[in-house]
């Protein structure tokens, strides 16, 4: 779910920060610039891991700040396709089930990959899995807001949603940068798609009984092994 990305940037340190040690000032500036931002085709930046190398610092004509070329590693949120993650239902709409991880909200499970058959209840604003019973009937399992849900990551989509990138990003060898607080808020800079249409996925409460039985079976096996020994 979290990866280390090696990035390169030219970091500007303003004169009022010259009282700080250069590595400390650079770390603060990198985190200020990248933390909680989306880098195009990289992911959601979380925190600086370490600085790999520092180049020479130069002062450009007409600018009293120092400019240092830096190679660094940054912790980035970008789940692997096929990875199983547990989140919480943020809301439901005809578009699908919207999930949050607390620090990241743009996760969608489209209707086609919900447990089948499912329907959308307009009055409740919730998706419902019509769980089939042995007698041919069905039992409605509601996907309520706040419920813990386990899903498999099936895809991702990046949008260049901010003018922060552009020529500056290319100049500094950084991918284009986006965030929901800057640029075009009508676009989602990074969206993840998931699926729950397989056994064991979906609301954790759906499988709680099966998990409890499995734990009981394991406990019985351990007890029997202890008695035999």
From TrEMBL:
Coiled-coil regions listed in the entry: none
Domain RNA polymerase Rpb7-like N-terminal, first and last residues per copy: 8-64
Domain of life: Eukaryota
A GO term from the CC aspect: RNA polymerase III complex
Compositional bias annotation for Polar residues: 169-184
Chain intervals for the UniProt region annotation (Disordered): 160-184
Subcellular location: Nucleus
Pfam families cross-referenced by the UniProt entry: RNA_pol_Rbc25, SHS2_Rpb7-N
Location, primary (coarse class): nucleus
RNA polymerase III subunit Rpc25 domain mapped to chain residues: 83-207
CDD domains registered for this protein in UniProt: RNAP_III_Rpc25_N (cd04330)
Gene Ontology BP annotations: defense response to virus; innate immune response; transcription initiation at RNA polymerase III promoter
Subunit note: Component of the RNA polymerase III complex consisting of 17 subunits: a ten-subunit horseshoe-shaped catalytic core composed of POLR3A/RPC1, POLR3B/RPC2, POLR1C/RPAC1, POLR1D/RPAC2, POLR3K/RPC10, POLR2E/RPABC1, POLR2F/RPABC2, POLR2H/RPABC3, POLR2K/RPABC4 and POLR2L/RPABC5; a mobile stalk composed of two subunits POLR3H/RPC8 and CRCP/RPC9, protruding from the core and functioning primarily in transcription initiation; and additional subunits homologous to general transcription factors of the RNA polymerase II machinery, POLR3C/RPC3-POLR3F/RPC6-POLR3G/RPC7 heterotrimer required for transcription initiation and POLR3D/RPC4-POLR3E/RPC5 heterodimer involved in both transcription initiation and termination.
Cited function: DNA-dependent RNA polymerase catalyzes the transcription of DNA into RNA using the four ribonucleoside triphosphates as substrates. Specific peripheric component of RNA polymerase III (Pol III) which synthesizes small non-coding RNAs including 5S rRNA, snRNAs, tRNAs and miRNAs from at least 500 distinct genomic loci. With CRCP/RPC9 forms a mobile stalk that protrudes from Pol III core and functions primarily in transcription initiation. Pol III plays a key role in sensing and limiting infection by intracellular bacteria and DNA viruses.
Protein name as it appears in the record: DNA-directed RNA polymerase III subunit RPC8
Organism: Lutzomyia longipalpis
């Amino acid at each position: 779910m979290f990866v280390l990305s090696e990035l390169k940037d030219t970091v500007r340190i303003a004169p009022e920060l010259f009282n700080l040690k250069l590595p400390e000032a650079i770390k603060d500036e990198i985190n200020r610039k990248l933390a909680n931002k989306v880098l195009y085709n990289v992911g959601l930046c979380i925190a600086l891991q370490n600085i790999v190398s520092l180049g020479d610092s130069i002062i450009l004509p007409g600018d009293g700040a120092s400019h240092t070329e830096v190679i660094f590693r940054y912790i980035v949120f970008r789940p692997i396709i096929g990875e199983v993650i547990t989140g919480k239902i943020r809301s439901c709409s005809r578009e699908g089930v919207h999930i949050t991880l607390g620090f990241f909200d743009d996760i969608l499970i489209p209707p086609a990959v919900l447990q089948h058959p499912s329907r959308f209840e307009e009055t409740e604003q919730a998706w419902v899995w019509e769980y089939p019973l042995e007698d041919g009937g069905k039992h409605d399992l509601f996907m309520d807001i706040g419920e813990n849900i386990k899903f498999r990551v099936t895809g991702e989509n990046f949008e260049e949603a901010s003018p922060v990138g552009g020529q500056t990003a290319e100049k500094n060898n950084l991918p284009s940068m986006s965030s929901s607080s800057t640029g075009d808020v009508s676009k989602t800079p990074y969206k993840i798609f998931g699926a729950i249409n397989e056994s064991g996925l979906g609301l954790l409460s759906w499988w709680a009984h099966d998990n409890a039985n499995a734990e009981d079976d394991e406990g019985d096996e351990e007890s029997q092994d202890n008695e035999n020994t």
